[in-house]
C-alpha cells in the first residue's frame, strides 16, 4: 500500500467562485466547455499548493480527486502541470455520471483508489457536503475554505 493524500482541485488548489460557475457545474446538467474555458486561467491557491509540494517532498503520494469529468482529463492535467502541482494519480468523475452528486462521485473514486493500492490518510477539500462525506467515510479532511454551495 502507498500512503497518499487526496487533494481536490476547484476551491482547493484552483481559485473558484461558486456564483460564477454555478450555472455550468453546480446543477445536475453540466456544461463543461464554458467551465473549462473559465477555469483554465484560474489562479493557484498558493498555501495549498505549497502544502502539497511539502507533502510530496516528504514522500507522500499526491492523489488528485475531483468532480471534474474524466472525459476532459487533459484540461485538468494541463492546469496542474502548468502550475507545477506535483501529483501521482488523478481520479475524476466517470463518463455518464454528470447527474451524480460530487460527494457520491468521490466516495466511488475512493474505493477505486484503494483498489489501485493507495492508502489515503488525509484529504484536502473545500465543499461542505464533500468534506462531510470524507469524514463520514472515516478520513480526516482539512477544509481549506468556506464551502456552503
Ligand atoms: Mg472543491
UniProtKB/TrEMBL annotation:
UniProtKB keywords: Kinase, Transferase
Superkingdom in the source lineage: Bacteria
SUPFAM superfamilies: HAD-like (SSF56784)
Transferase listed as a keyword: yes
GO molecular function: kinase activity
Polynucleotide kinase PNKP phosphatase domain mapped to chain residues: 3-149
Pfam family name, one: HAD_PNKP
Name of the featured protein: Polynucleotide kinase
